[in-house]
Design goal:
Blueprint lengths: L1 E4 L4 H10 L8 H11 L5 E8 L4 E7 L2 E7 L3 H10 L10 E5 H11 L4 E12 L11 E3 L6 H15 L8 H13 L3 E6 L2 E9 L7 E7 L8 H13 L5 E7 L3 H10 L2 E10 L9
Parallel strand pairs: 4-5
Antiparallel strand pairs: 1-2, 2-3, 3-4, 5-12, 6-11, 6-12, 7-8, 8-9, 9-10
Length: 283
């Protein structure tokens, strides 16, 4: 049965919470999109949940993205989804987000080719799994006077993380950094008076605290600074929560090994894909 939703009310939110079996972090991007819709910053076009007693599919269509998540699907499920959604109608630049295997199999079945924008691996760390890593780097909270220095580092992060596809303007990034400093959601590593890297975090007062962005300046890499930043923040967040979460770029093997060495375990693969050449159809 497919149930359509015109609004993302408490009933819909409860359904997607049940979908995760308590691992709400798996639908981090979907929950973010739902919040944006409900706060009026993103326009909802359609939403549905398919539940036939075995397969479960969640779909949320907004003006710029389609969130699609699946569990226990089969060929019959894919047929139902492709009949409900005309994937060939979406314009160039449109995003599709969801769990990686479902997105891959769904669009292979529909014979629609998407380009990968970003593949993410989601990781989880418990108090019991946190390593005994000894942090020897200087890490502390930055002052507002260090905003400019951190802003330049943050801009470089966007250039490297998204291969030049998601660069940010200085003033936009500066405002973000100011907010992070004021809300005490960022720490930095130092080499004497120079900031060598930073680590942000969010939801620290909740049951699902999460490490955000970790970045080390290129000239200071391969010195264990990134690992020190993650370990420092993880230990701090675990003081008030049983678990900490983070995301990595799936293809960044060294980064994945590094977070695993701190004790993180991979729980989920997520993908963001985009139509870049119109409705590209396989021959």
């Amino acid at each position: 049965m497919i149930t359509d939703y015109k609004i993302l009310d408490n009933n819909f939110i409860r359904k997607i919470e049940e979908f995760t079996n308590g691992e709400l972090f798996q639908l981090f991007y979907l929950f973010t999109g739902v919040n944006m819709v409900n706060y009026g910053s993103l326009k909802l076009k359609n939403a549905f949940i398919l539940d036939d007693g075995k397969s479960e599919i969640i779909g949320v269509l907004t003006e710029s993205s389609f969130y699609l998540y699946g569990k226990n699907w089969n060929k019959s499920t894919l047929e139902k989804i492709t009949k409900k959604i005309n994937f060939k109608s979406f314009p160039e630049g449109f995003f599709f987000l969801g769990n990686e295997r479902f997105i891959s199999e769904l669009f292979d079945f529909a014979k629609i080719k998407l380009d990968v924008f970003k593949n993410r691996s989601f990781y989880k760390l418990s108090k019991q799994e946190n390593s005994g890593f000894e942090n020897k780097n200087e890490i502390d909270s930055p002052s507002i006077n260090e905003t400019i220095e951190i802003t330049h580092l943050y801009q470089q992060y966007y250039v490297e993380e998204y291969n030049g596809q998601n660069n940010k303007e200085f003033n936009e990034t500066k405002e973000k950094v100011i907010e992070l400093i004021k809300e005490e959601n960022i720490v930095v590593s130092r080499n004497q008076d120079e900031i060598t890297g930073f680590c942000t975090f969010m939801h620290k007062e909740t049951d699902s605290p999460m490490i955000g962005t970790v970045f080390v300046s290129s000239e200071f890499r391969n010195n264990g600074i990134g690992k020190s930043l993650i370990d420092f923040v993880s230990k701090d967040l675990l003081k008030s929560s049983d678990f900490v979460y983070l995301m990595t770029t799936k293809e960044n093997i060294e980064s994945n090994k590094m977070v695993e060495s701190v004790g993180y375990k991979k729980v989920y693969d997520h993908t963001s894909r985009i139509i870049t050449v119109g409705n590209t159809v396989y021959n």
